Amino acid sequence: MPTENLPTPARTAADDAARTARELRSAVGQLRRRLLETADNHQLTPSQTTLLSRLGKHGPATASALATAERVRPQSVAATLGVLEERGYVVRTPDPDDGRRQVVSLTPAGQEVFEGRRQAGHEWLTRALSDRLDADERRTLAEAIALMERLTRS
């Protein structure tokens, strides 16, 4: 139902929620971009970085599981994994439960890239929080994070 047909308090609440949603999406996007900028990308594309990060965070997976998780076509994942494999960042091994499939995991070099990117982002964010926000603002942000976590729970 369009907000203009709602009574005034409901319209105000709906407008407020919509405005907050836009601002939150923008702020989260800006933070994500800034975190991505902080790390050496090792000349990886965003899709390569995404798969490397997923494997680093969630562990080994099949190509089809990665495609499902990233909501992309399996062919796209296969091409991306091929590049990561050529660079020595991932390795494919037979799936112990189904020999027709392969499990993809990070190599030590891939793990090093993943950890380095994660550490660089953590260091930048820690410095930014310390330098740009006072103690009260950091507490407010911590409260907002708790609310964001509540929003994302199923």
Q: Enumerate how many helices there are, as a single number.
A: 6
Number of strands: 3
Structural class: mainly alpha
Strand content: 5-15%
- Major sheet summary line: 3 strands, antiparallel
Alpha-carbon Rg, integer = 20 Å
Mean pLDDT: 91
Low-confidence stretches: none
Which H/E pattern describes the elements?
Answer: HHEHHEEHH
Summarize the amount of helix as a percent range.
over 70%
Principal-axis shape equals: extended
User: Which strand order does the major sheet show?
Assistant: 1-3-2
Our measurement of the CA-to-CA distance between the termini, rounded to an integer number of angstroms, reads 24 Å
Tell me about this structure:
Helices cover 70% and strands 11% of the residues. It is built from six helices and three strands, in the order ααβααββαα. A hairpin with a 2-residue loop joins β2 (90-95) and β3. The protein is extended, with a radius of gyration of 20 Å. It has 154 residues and is mainly α. A three-stranded antiparallel sheet has the order 1-3-2. It has helices at residues 8-38, 46-58, 63-70, 74-86, 108-132, 135-152, and strands at residues 61-62, 90-95, 98-106.
